């Protein structure tokens, strides 16, 4: 399994607005395309106003295929436009993690 670790830093004061829009509109689309949500978190200490989410994939190629299909989905395109217009996200980063042979996942 490969894990896509994504960290989004929100504009201060916009975290709840992001989460409400995402849960209502973005999450159902991503679950339909990406499937394996491992976790969705908000930071309590350290750098605040962050959302960290982890998605599991069979391989890097599986990730690429699933994300490519999602990027073509008109529902996802509309959600991304709405999310961008809301101006909640200040910065995004992601890492594709490959497990070690002794990793439990």
UniProtKB/TrEMBL annotation:
Residues 85-105 are annotated as: Disordered. Pfam families: NIPSNAP. InterPro entries: Dimeric_a/b-barrel, NIPSNAP, NipSnap_domain. Coiled coil: none annotated. Residues 4-104 form the NIPSNAP domain. PANTHER family: NIPSNAP-RELATED, PROTEIN NIPSNAP. Belongs to the NipSnap family. This is NIPSNAP family protein.
């Amino acid at each position: 399994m490969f894990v896509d670790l994504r960290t989004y830093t929100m504009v201060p004061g916009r975290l709840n607005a992001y989460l409400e829009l995402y849960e209502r509109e973005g999450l159902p689309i991503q679950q339909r395309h990406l499937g394996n949500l491992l976790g969705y978190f908000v930071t309590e200490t350290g750098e605040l106003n962050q959302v960290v989410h982890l998605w599991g994939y069979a391989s890097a190629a599986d990730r690429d295929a699933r994300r490519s299909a999602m990027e073509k989905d008109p529902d996802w395109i509309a959600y991304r436009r709405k999310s961008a217009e809301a101006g909640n996200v200040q910065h995004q980063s992601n890492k594709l993690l490959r497990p070690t042979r002794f990793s439990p996942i």
